[in-house]
Amino acid sequence: MDATPRILLVDDEADFRFSASIALRKAGFEVIEAEDGKEALSMIRNFRSDGRGIDLLLTDLRMPGLGGLELLEALGEDGIDIPVIAITGYGNDSLPADLKAKGCNEFMEKPFEPDDLVMRVRKVLDNCASGSKRE
User: Fold this and answer.
1) Residue 26 CB-density burial (10 A; 0-12 exposed, 13-18 middle, 19+ buried)
2) Domains of the chain, with CATH numbers?
3) For 1-27, how does the pLDDT look when each residue is reduced to its tens digit (9 = 90+)?
4) Cα dihedral sign for 26, 28, 32, 37?
5) pLDDT score of 131
6) What is the mean pLDDT of residues 50-68?
7) How many whole angstroms separate alpha carbon 117 and alpha carbon 88?
């Protein structure tokens, strides 16, 4: 396993991807970006076939084409288990429970501070480190 955790950041907003990736890279993470769920799913599958993996998936929920919930469902159908932090600007009361049922580890509502994002990423990676491997 590589020493630097690899994060796949999925969001259709280029400005958000840019700012979030800067914060995560400054914190020492390797960041790979995708602009929608379809691209992210393809990247995850390609990484797996190359014998590499993703340590954490950070995905927006509302995106054109394949959204974050559909991405989580597709990963489940493929038997791919990756720690996930879901992000959205359109949360509701039932969303956290729905996300947890689909295998999501953490949920963040936009907007949030870059330091909070880094803290949550570290928390999820630390919680999953004991028995997880890259998928």
Assistant:
1) exposed
2) 6-122 (3.40.50.2300)
3) 457 999 999 999 999 999 999 999 999
4) negative
5) 54
6) 92
7) 13
